[in-house]
Amino acid sequence: MFMPDSSISTERRMHRLVVLFVAVALTFVTPRALAASTSDARQFCVVVDPGHGGRDSGSIGINGLREKTAVLDIAQRLGQLLTTNLHARVVLTRRGDYYVSLEERATEANRAKGGTPADLLISIHVNACLERTVNGFQVFYASKDAFGLDEIIQIDDTGRQRRVLGTGYDDISESARWDSQCSKHKEANELLASSVADALENRLAMPRLQNAPAVLRLLRGLDMPAVLVEIGFMSNGSSEAMLSTKEFQDTCAQALLEGIMDYRKAMLDRVSFER
Amino acid sequence: MASKVTKTFLLTLWALAVCALVVIAAILLREFLSGGDEFTYGGRFQNTEPTETMETISLLFGSTDGQGLGTELRKVRKKDTTLHQIKQLIDELIRGPNAVLVRTIPEGTKLNSVYLLSDGTLVIDFSREIQTLHTGGTTGEILTVYSIVNSVTMNFSQVETVQILIDGDEVETLVGHLDLEQPLTRDNRWLKPSAMTVSASREIVE
After folding, report:
1. Are B24 and B76 contained in the same domain?
2. Looking at residue B114, what is its pLDDT?
3. How far is A147 from chain B (nearest CA, A)?
4. In angstroms, how far is the first alpha carbon of chain B from the final one?
5. Judged by CB atoms within 8 Å, which residues 206-225 of A form the interface with B?
6. From the CA of B202, how many Å to the nearest CA of chain A?
7. Interface probe, candidates B67, B104, B131, B139, chain A, greatest A C-beta count within 10 A
8. Per-residue DSSP letters for A196-215?
9. Same-domain pairing of A17 and A81
10. Do residues A227 and A141 make contact, with C-beta atoms less than 8 angstroms apart?
11. What total number of domains does chain B contain?
12. Do B181 and A217 touch (CB under 8 A)?
């Protein structure tokens, strides 16, 4: 049956060859394509956001260290660690010294995982204030309260109930709905914040300042758990000196990695407990 | 020759004229003493100043641990209208603390304008220096913004929310962190009850 049959025309032979070729090709391509799309959906996706950049230098230390430079170094190191240790898909909102608006960063994060929101976002900054003795790290997150987005029920004179958001919108308009994405992740935000803060406290020799919710522009429109981490104060001389060293930057990145890992574990434990 | 009638008549007339003059003089003297506007000329006759009232306002500045806001009570000359009083409070915040607390608004910032909307939103327009001279940081930004928002809402019940503009424009953030696109409400989280409350009675000379 499989012996070459000289009675078959050349045309028919060519036709069989083409069919054979296509069949073989499909067996190689299709499973890989399927595997790739499912692994994209399953792959842990983290957006790492180095604050400021370009014309926005962020805070500047007395010895000239710029926040935008220090946080980019830490962010890139964290990206490498996430890829190596967690096989995560890492998206950096900027990879160099250029300006990216907060809205662009949020939009990118909301589409980072094949058009859908990333699994979490961590924004890296260095703090500053006018009191130069102040030092420490602090983790900020968005909560419903911070944006005044508590849902309240208003009952009018006719007894009709109306659900309104605390910001004063009369109906839940499109922009309010978009802006309140972050409120869906209130508990996850707090969990991520405490995991990251605990990890930083283990690794960094600087005071731990209390985690706090804040009305942060970046976090407003994010549809994923997210925190903004302030590592040290650029206004503090010793803090600036530490942030200038590669060793400290690596330690920061390592701490952030561990915080993310602890958060992931806590979330999985929570899910399995609820089951 | 003048008859007796004429003489009497003239005498009466003269007496009346003298009386009239005396009355006018008395009126004029009274006017002069009460400081009426009509008698201001060459600065010799000055209007007396109406009596001014003083009041105490609460100003929020940075606490010394850099983690919140402390209160300074300050005596100021009371202004006539609410809007003038609000403007005065913001000017005092820009002037900075008199004692141990830490400045929150960059020195060199100017208040361009202030207006209060009917829905209780206070719109404050600052000059660009509030951004360009700012030292940055989320904490620094929180202290600046909430020293303003909390101070005005604490002192003026008519103010419910605060919208900050920079040279007339809406901005995404002050220095890259806090959302300034929407009106802000008071956040008591940043008040430090343990921070010193200072009574500063030094009068501000305008």
Report:
1. no
2. 97
3. 9
4. 75
5. 209-210, 212-218, 220
6. 24
7. B139
8. HHHHHHHH-SSPBPPPEE--
9. no
10. yes
11. 2
12. yes
Looking at residue A67, which CATH number applies to its domain?
Answer: 3.40.630.40
Q: Is B96 left (phi over 0), alpha (psi -120 to 50) or beta?
A: left
Question: A interface mutation test: which of B63, B135, B138, B160 has the most A CBs within 10 A?
Answer: B138
Q: What is the pLDDT of residues B132-151, one digit of tens each?
A: 999 999 999 999 999 999 99
What percent of chain B is predicted at pLDDT more than 70?
Answer: 83
Interchain contact, A58 vs B136, CB within 8 Å: yes
Is B148 in contact with B124 (CB distance < 8 Å)? yes
| pLDDT (average), residues A221-247 | 96
Domain that holds residue B132: 54-200
Report pTM.
0.76
Q: Tell me how many domains chain A contains.
A: 2
b/e map A189-228, b = 16+ CB within 10 Å: bbbbbbbbbbbbeebbebeebebbbbbbbbbbbbbbbbbb
- In this predicted model, which residue has the larger pLDDT, B33 or A260? A260
Query: Percentage of residues in chain A with pLDDT exceeding 70?
Result: 76
Say whether A129 and B181 touch across the interface (CB within 8 A). no
Question: Residue A169: pLDDT above 90?
Answer: no
| A60 has pLDDT over 80 | yes
CB contact under 8 A, A216 and B179: yes
- CA separation (Å) from B125 to A6, A28, A109, B90, B130? 92, 64, 32, 11, 10
Confidence of residue A120 (pLDDT cuts 50, 70, 90): very high
Q: Are residues B146 and B60 in the same domain?
A: yes
Stronger pLDDT, B203 or B55, i.e. the higher one:
B55
Does B121 lie in the same domain as B35?
A: no
- Optimal mutation site among A62, A71, A130, interface B, most CBs of chain B within 10 A: A130
- Same-domain status, A16 and A88: no
Residues from chain B that touch A228, judged by Cβ atoms under 8 A, are 138, 177
ipTM for the predicted complex comes to 0.76
Answer yes or no: do A212 and B185 touch at CB < 8 A. no
**pLDDT score recorded for residue B35:** 53
**Residues from chain A contacting residue B119 (CB–CB below 8 Å):** 168
